[in-house]
Amino acid sequence: MIRSNDPHHLARCLCLAAGLGLVPLGAQAESNVVIEPGVKTRATFTDNVNTSAKGDSDFIMEVTPSIRLSRRAGRLTGSFDGSLRNVLYTNQNDRSTSFISFRGNGEFEAVKDLLFIEAVGSVSRNDRSAFGSRSSSDPLNTNANNETRYFSLAPRLQFRLGPSAQGTLRYQAAWNNGSSITNSRQTDTWTLNLKDAEAYGPLGWYVNYSHNTTQYDGSPRDLTDELGRAGVSYRLTRQVVLRASVGRESNDFSLSGRQSKTTYGYGFDWIPGPRTSLSATTEQRLFGRSYDLAFSHRSKRSALQLSYTRDYSSSDQLIRTSIDDYFYQLIYDSLGTISDPLQREAAARYLVDQLGLAGVSVQSAFVSNTQTLRRNLRADLSFTGVRNTVTVSVFRTEAERISPDLIVSGRDDFASYNLIRTRGLSLALSHRLSQLASANAMLGQTQTKGEGLISRNQRRTTFSLGVSRQLGARSNGSLTYRHQRQTGDTAFTENAITATLGLRF
Q: pLDDT tens digits for 391-448?
C-alpha cells in the first residue's frame, strides 16, 4: 500500500510535469510555440438544475480565465490547457464554486536519440458514474466530490542492438486520487520491448515484457500483474505482416490469489498506404481470449476509425481523455488540406468547440476502485467540407468487475453491479453560415444497463442547437439551446439556454 499520501507530493509532480514539457522556459521567443491566454464567460438558464423528476430552475454565471500552450518541434514538445473556473449559482448558492481544471502532456529529449522523459497530468470534475444524472462532459458538472487528479512521469530509453534490432525500456510512475469513490493509488509500470523485423530477411522477432504494481492507500492489499511474450513476424508482402507469439501471464486480481497461465496468440498488420492501416491480434489469456482490432483510413477531408478490444482495464486508463481529446484527433486527421501543423491544430480545436458536443457521452468512462475486464467496440467518422463538418460516433462497452474486495464506497458502480453495459451514438454538425458565423447541431443517446445484486436500465437523449459568431479578431460569442431527457430509475427532463463570450489575448 502507499506509504505516503502527502498532497504536496502531487503538487511537486505537477510542477515537475510542467517543467518537463508543458511550460517550457524561454519558449515564448520560439516560433514553434503557441501561447494563448484567454477568458470565457458563460451564462446558463436551466429549468432543472438538480436533474430530478421535479427540478428547480436556476441561473448560472461563469467566468473562466484560461491559458493554452503548445510546442510541436524541438527537444521539448507538449501541450497544456488549463483554466480557473468560477461558477456562481443564483438560487442555490451552496453550489457556487471555484476550481482548477487542466490537462497536459509533454516529452523532453534529455539525451539525443537515447533518453526521453514523458509527463502527463489532468484535473477535472466530471460525474464519473455510469448512471450519473449528467454526462461526464456536461459543463454543469461542478461537484467537488467528482474531482479526479491524475499525474504520471515516465523516463524512457530507446536504443539499438546491432544493425536493425531496436529496443525501449520504460518506467512509469502514475498517481491517481480525488473522487469519493476510489482510494488514492500509485501505479508503477515497467515495460521492455525488443524487436528486429528484418533479422532474417522477411522473418523477424520481438520480445515484450510488462510489470505493473498498484498500491492503494488504506487498502488491505496491493495488486501486481506481469505479462511477457516472445514472437516472430513474417513479411508476406510489402503490405502484409503476419505475427505469432507465446508467453506467460500472472496476476493477483482474483480473490482466489495469484494465478498464472501460458499465453499464445497471432495476428497481422495490413498497411496498403500511408493513409490506411489495419491491425488485428488475438491471444489466449488468463481471462480467456483477448482481442485488439484497429482500422483507420484518412483522406484530405475525412477520417474513419474502427476498433474492438477485450482486455483488462482500470480507471487510470479511462480518466485521462476528455471529450475534446476524443474528437480532436479525429477532426485533425480529416484536415489533410492544411499542411501547417500549428494551423491544423488551431483549426481542429476550433471545430471541436463549434460542434457543441458538451453534454454528450461518447464513451463509458466511469471510475471504480476495482480492476475490470472490458470489451469495447467503437466507430468514429469525421468529414470536413468547405462549409460543413460532420462527426458520427458509435460505441458499445461491457465492463465486468474482477476485484470486488477493493471497492470502498457505495457510490462505486460495481458495489451493486457485476456487469455494466453501455452503448451510445452521437451525431454532430457544424455549418458555416458566413465567414464569421456558423450554426451547429448535436444529437446523442446512451443506454446503460447494470446487472448484479440489483438491475438497472437507464437511457439518456441529448439534443442541442446553436449559433456562434466571431465578434472581433480575437473574440467570439455563441448562443445554444440544449434539451436532455433521461428515462429509467431516475427520470428527468432538462431544458437549458447558454450564452458564451470568449476572448483570446
A: 999 999 999 988 777 776 667 788 888 999 999 999 999 999 998 999 999 999 999 9
Sequence-ordered alpha helix ranges (H) in 274-340: 323-334
The neighbour count for residue 247, using CB atoms within 10 Å, is 20
Tell me the CA distances in angstroms from 297 to 293, 328, 354, 386, 482, one per residue in order. 14, 16, 24, 20, 33
Provide the CA 423 distance to its chain's centre, in angstroms. 17
Give pLDDT, residue 16.
Answer: 39
Torsion sign, CA atoms 237, 238, 242, 247:
positive
**Which neighbouring-strand residues pair with 382?**
303, 391
Residue 236: what residue type? L
Tens digits of residue pLDDT in 404-420: 777 766 677 888 889 99
Fold classified for 7-25+33-504:
Maltoporin; Chain A (2.40.170)
The Cβ of residue 374 has, within 10 Å, a number of other Cβ atoms equal to 19
pLDDT band at 39 (very low <50, low <70, confident <90, very high): very high
83: left (phi over 0), alpha (psi -120 to 50) or beta: beta
Q: Where are the domains of the chain?
A: 7-25+33-504
Confidence of residue 319 (pLDDT cuts 50, 70, 90): low
Q: Long-range contacts of range 165-174, CB-CB < 8 Å, 24 or more positions apart?
A: 165/194, 165/195, 165/196, 165/199, 166/194, 166/195, 166/196, 167/192, 167/193, 167/194, 167/195, 168/192, 168/193, 172/118, 174/150, 174/316
| HEC assignment per residue over 85-115 | EEEEECCCHHHCEEEEEEEEEEEEEEECCCE
Please check the confidence at residue 20 and state whether its pLDDT lies above 70.
no
SS3 (DSSP) at 174: strand
Buried b (16+ CB within 10 A) or exposed e, 123-145: bbbbbbbbbbbbbbbbbbbbeee
Q: Phi, psi at residue 56, to the nearest 5°? A: -110, 145
One-letter amino acid at 400 equals: E
Q: Does an H or E element contain 311, and which? A: strand 302-313
Contact 361, 136 (CB under 8 A): yes
For the chain, give the number of residues: 505
